[in-house]
Amino acid sequence: MSVPLRSRSRRHALRGRPGRAALVALATAALTAPLALTAGATAAPAAPGQGTVTRTAPTADTRATEAARHGGAAEQGDKLARKLVRRTGADGAHRHLTALSAIAKTGDGHRGAGSPGHDRSAAYAGGLLKAAGYKVSYQKFEFTFRETLAEKLTVLGPQQRDVPITLMTYTKSTPEGGIEAPLAAVPVDADGSSGCEAGDYGGGDYKGRIALIRRGSCSFAQKQAAAADAGAVGAVVYNNEDGALNGTLGSPDDARIPTGGITKADGEALAAQAAGGGTTVRLEVRERQERRTTHNVLAETRGGDADRTVMLGAHLDSVPEGPGINDNGSGSAGILETALQLAKADHKGRHANKVRFALWSAEELGLLGAEHYVTQLPAAERKKIALYLNFDMIASPNYGIFAYDGDDSDRTGAGPGPEGSAALEKDLVDFLATRGMPARGTDFDGRSDYGPFIEAGIPAGGTFTGAEKIKTAEQQKLWGGTAGEAYDGCYHQACDTLENIDMRAFDANVKAIANAVGHYAWDVSGVTARGAGGGKKGGMNAGKTGGAAVADGEEPAYGPYKGARLVR
């Protein structure tokens, strides 16, 4: 690992205000940059404290004096937040979406991890952040690149028909042309679970068959492994709610048999047909896999107390099927634009807390970039992270307005986040309400980069506008749009382009990022009851309390996230 890039010009760049011409020049440079980042830039100090970086954090007395002189940290946070919200919005962030779209067009139509499109996206974002004066580093790691080659499920009798299927990433591949086998439905238990353990297969014959399994209760990797142990040659998992099913097995090492996902309606129809006996299907799911390297982009302010580090992140990679402008160009653009505006608004870097922005790679393959970052951090450095906010898909065209349910007040699905997460949720919900956007809770379901942070016990939150799930009639009344359709009908598809963005939702969420950065750059006292910087419960608006109790000596466990093995 190398130290962050430092130069006299970078130190003074924070005071400058790069114009549109400079931004265009950086975008152009990224489009034409060599695909391999230089060795001096890639070996990043991904885990602060592991390199040779020297920090001169202010003492408690200095911070107290500064707070008193400026009227208190909370008041300073209010002031900076108002300034950032005025300056930051969808119009400014959209220019980054335009650049990412252009980059995807030069990179085989996508920006997937390990691809030219992702490398150029990282160069674009890193170049802007360095020009703004941030300490920028590129954290390099290896992963297994994957690309879909075939996805097809055909029912061969009594009437032949095709059923749309999406392969589980990192699946074992079938031979070209697929495999033919009888379909065997795995029973659904009273608690809704299906196919998670050996006993679920005890009442039927699955040897040489393709197992049809309902989603829920355990990871997809566990389901296909149990089916393989029962003798199945393939697995088809059907959704337990409306909408398409996109999933991952988490790692090639966990793949046992070819596995794909289908909708609830198709799965229930196939289960009913299989119950009648004699249903044969042809399953073809094939994926190219190879080892590659990729990079997280990390940028942190030069000022601020490193013992109270505020982190915000979004994944920069797309799926190989498309350019990923909503998923997750939108979150990346919101993070990037807010960082640039912070550099202008507080150009002397006098805010109390260090702010670190992260653009993760390989999220689409199982949160690999964020997991690599968190697992590489020494325990002492993890404790310095006061909070983590995640922004993944914040401009869906048929949007919902969701904030991660930090205290599990919805009482559905996954449990609460670590203590402090409830305050983060309330702060976001309260701000969105001021923009005319009533928010509802969404689970920490393990599907985005907050996962490794909550696993480490770090307070987490963020916003989300919906993916493949279906908008209800009640939600249509709340937010408009079209009931009975997905929040993002182009989720993980080639049509996730600039035309797939709702600017009203985008603007509200970008301003929510800006508001959070302004407040937390000065004051995290309401979030950090767990000990990162101390403080009391509540939020910048003094909110509800939450968090999961952890006994002494136990590792925290929140929701279904366990490494890269997701309940999706």
Distance between the termini: 33 Å
Output the number of helix runs: 16
Shape: elongated
| Helix/strand class | alpha/beta
DSSP strand count: 14
Please tell me how large the radius of gyration is. 24 Å
Element order, helices and strands? HHHHHHHEEEEEHEEHEEHEHHEEHEHEHH
Low-confidence stretches: 1-20, 38-71, 530-568
The chain-level mean pLDDT equals 84
Percent of residues in β-strands: 15-25%
Main sheet specs:
14 strands, mixed
Q: Helicity range of the residues?
A: 25-40%
Q: What's a quick, concise take on this entry?
A:
Helix content is 32%, strand content 18%.
Name some characteristics of this structure.
single chain; 568 residues; alpha/beta; 14 strands; 18% strand; disordered N terminus
What do these coordinates show?
This protein is α/β, with parallel strands linked by helices. 32% of the residues lie in helices and 18% in strands. Strands 1, 2, 3, 4, 5, 6, 7, 8, 9, 10, 11, 12, 13 and 14 form a 14-stranded mixed β-sheet that branches. The radius of gyration is 24 Å and the shape is elongated.
List the helices and strands and how they pair.
Layout: H1 8-13, H2 20-32, H3 39-42, H4 60-69, H5 73-87, H6 90-106, H7 116-131, E1 135-155, E2 161-163, E3 166-167, E4 179-185, E5 210-214, H8 220-229, E6 234-238, E7 259-262, H9 264-275, E8 280-300, E9 305-315, H10 325-345, E10 353-360, H11 368-376, H12 379-383, E11 385-391, E12 402-404, H13 421-434, E13 440-442, H14 451-455, E14 460-464, H15 473-479, H16 503-520
Parallel strand pairs: 4-5, 5-6, 6-7, 9-10, 9-11, 11-14, 12-13
Antiparallel strand pairs: 1-2, 1-8, 3-7, 4-8, 8-10, 12-14
Helix pairs in contact: 2-7, 5-10, 5-16, 6-7, 6-10, 10-16, 13-16
